UniProtKB/TrEMBL annotation:
InterPro entries: LicD_transferase, SAM-dependent_MTases_sf
Protein name as catalogued: Methyltransferase domain-containing protein
Organism encoding this protein: Nocardioides iriomotensis
């Protein structure tokens, strides 16, 4: 049955439409698919319909004119077709990279060169690399197969899915314990690196192989490890990306075959069961806006086994690699650092800064006489500050702390808690830059460090500013003040004071808190 899409309106904020049921809609610019969404799943209720906002990755292109079409993906029925003007300017909107190559929004709402923009000549190197990597993995002693969207495209239509942007391989280890599976994955990575491939590791049992295509584009080939076990979970398939489901080994082995772009590739023995475990029973119906809904128990289990040291690491690596560190050190200390000194009535003798970032505040406090430890997830951010501190003989040290890994929190918290005397703990834009697990561990380590005396000075984003580059650059999400207070009180803290203030000349609002533990 066809579900009608009516009353469509398009403006700079997004797309408004009415619809009586869920369906997938493709957005085309000048007859090329740019993006797909579910209506109303991805929309906000408004005026009897739904508003679906433009993806943030797409907004910088939305200046000019285009023929915009909305087409239902499965039925291929056109719900809207009009010439529209967005943003400023009158040129044709071109969603392309810096080399003029077409881009689209993938299932993760990121810009990518999707397969529907690529010719057979351009994807041939990727297929060649699938062949080569499969051979290398087989030579290393495992039985790999194509997986996820790559397998889905092969089984459903014998070709790469147009709205996909990468290729996926998987394997199920002969081992049943996570440690053994991790060791095997690193052995596989070394074998591929010896072949000349550039490797980026995602987790303990997943990595990406970079493949250069004919036009110079870099395409990622993902290798996801999996296993059945360990003993207490025997009968469950665990596969990175993210699957944990009751499974039998004979549904995978012996491997069968499937055809992709005219080439034969290994596949799980029962592709129907595998794709049902991956995408659900409706996997046969195309869905370019599919969203993985991983149970929290599965996510936490796989994080604990394989991703404890990698959660959000890629985002912060990109943040720090995109700027010259020396330039950052020319900046003055943050307003927060100066506020801490004023609020404390002078420079604290001992400061532990959680989430120190570039380390600029550490230098400021140390030059005024404080002994400072800066803790951060990505220690490379403070490398330049550490060099300056060494040159000036300042009492500053920088150490790694991962709030998403309990082992790191307990080890570093225990080490610092052994130091005698009161201390000040600071955390600027840290609670709003991590997830709920990280926040719980932030309150935990603050409790460990301050239960014998001292003060926590806290700053976090309360309201995002309009078109807020600061929030984007620092991966910040606004937090309700009551949510933060509740988390702190659960750890036995007392809120000494709190204040929500306007941050500079922007509409951004931040909250500053003074917190203590009174035993």
């Amino acid at each position: 049955m066809t579900i009608p899409v009516t009353d469509v309106r398009v403006d700079d904020d997004g797309i408004f439409a009415r619809c009586d049921g869920e369906l997938v809609v493709d957005v085309l610019f000048d007859e090329r698919r740019i993006w797909s969404f579910w209506l109303p799943r991805d929309g906000k209720p408004s005026g009897g319909g739904y508003v679906v906002e433009w993806p943030s990755a797409l907004r910088r292109f939305l200046h000019g004119t285009t023929r915009l079409q909305l087409v239902t993906h499965v039925e291929q029925q056109t719900a809207y077709d009009a010439e529209v003007q967005l943003g400023e300017g009158s040129d044709r909107i071109a969603v392309v990279n810096d080399r003029g190559l077409p881009l689209g929004i993938d299932k993760s709402l990121r810009l990518a060169q999707t397969f529907d923009t690529r010719s057979a000549e351009h994807v041939a190197p990727l297929l060649d690399s699938i062949d080569e990597v499969l051979g290398a993995l087989q030579k290393a002693g495992i039985e790999p197969f194509i997986a996820y969207g790559t397998l889905l495209g092969a089984v459903r239509g014998g070709k790469l899915i147009g709205h996909d942007s990468d290729a996926d391989l998987g394997y199920v280890s002969r081992h049943s314990h996570p440690v053994d599976v991790i060791r095997e994955s690193f052995d596989l990575q070394r074998a591929l690196a010896d072949m000349g491939y550039a490797i980026t590791r995602y987790s303990g049992i997943a990595f990406k192989v970079d493949v250069r295509e004919a036009d110079g584009s870099i395409r990622g080939l993902d290798v996801f490890g999996g296993f059945i076990g360990p003993s207490e979970d025997d009968g469950y398939l665990h596969l990175m990306g993210e699957i944990r489901t009751p499974y039998k080994r004979e549904w995978i082995f012996p491997l069968g075959t499937t055809t992709l772009e005219g080439r034969e590739y290994p596949a799980p023995a029962d592709t129907d069961r595998f794709l049902t475990a991956t995408y659900g029973p409706s996997w046969r119906v195309p869905d370019p806006a599919y969203v993985f809904e991983t149970p929290e128990s599965t996510h936490r289990r796989l994080n604990g086994w394989f991703r404890g040291t990698r959660v959000k690491r890629a985002e912060w690596d990109r943040t720090y690699s995109g700027h010259k560190l020396e330039g950052e050190l020319d900046q003055t200390a943050s307003a927060f650092a100066k506020w801490v000194v004023r609020e404390h009535g002078g420079v604290p003798e001992r400061i532990v800064d959680l989430g120190c970032g570039r380390g600029v505040d550490e230098l400021f406090w140390a030059r005024k006489g404080a002994r400072v430890t800066g803790l951060d997830f990505v220690i490379r951010g403070s490398e330049a500050a550490a060099e300056v501190a060494a040159q000036e003989g300042l009492p500053v040290d920088f150490r790694m702390l991962n709030l998403c890994e309990l082992r790191s929190v307990l080890a570093e918290g225990g080490r610092l808690a052994r130091e005698p005397g009161p201390r000040v703990v600071t955390a600027r834009h840290l609670a709003d830059a991590t997830d709920k697990v990280g926040r719980a561990n932030l309150w935990r380590i603050a409790d460990m460090l301050l239960r014998d005396g001292g003060t926590l000075y806290l700053e976090f984003l309360n309201t995002r500013g309009e078109d807020d580059p600061f929030a984007r650059q620092h991966h910040l999400r606004p937090l309700p003040v009551d949510l933060v207070e509740h988390g702190l009180r659960e750890r036995g803290a007392t809120i000494v004071s709190r204040k929500v203030i306007k941050d500079g000349e922007t509409s951004r609002r931040i909250c500053r808190m003074v917190v203590a533990w009174q035993r």
